[in-house]
Design a protein that fits this description.
Layout: H1 2-52, E1 59-62, E2 67-73, E3 78-84, E4 87-92, E5 96-101, H2 109-125
Antiparallel strand pairs: 1-2, 1-5, 2-3, 3-4
Amino acid sequence: MFISEALAQTAGGASTDSLVSFLPLIAIVVVFYFMLFRPQQQKAKKHRELLAGIRRGDRIVTAGGIIGTVNKVLSDTELQVEIAEGVRVRLLRGTVTEILAKTEPAKDKTAKAAEAAEAEVEDKTN
């Protein structure tokens, strides 16, 4: 008779004790997420955006420390880079660690035509 009452009391109390014992574990997981995982994800996202924005004429630094100028974007994964005068190498896009100097994006034909028309109007007014 006393045993069944004792088991009933521990069963109800065990649920709150187990919840309290998991709180430090949950806190550690949250701290790890905000201190380690989230910053790594943000850094990886910035690097992917950097790699996607590489254009012809950009000065880049590779993972090996080589500085060069992008001559041609061969594909989504390859670049042709000039590392010295007349020396061109093919690199994987993923090896680029930094862009030192960005070039202006190429203007499309409609923007060029609009600028030419504006310049012509200004010449006629002057």
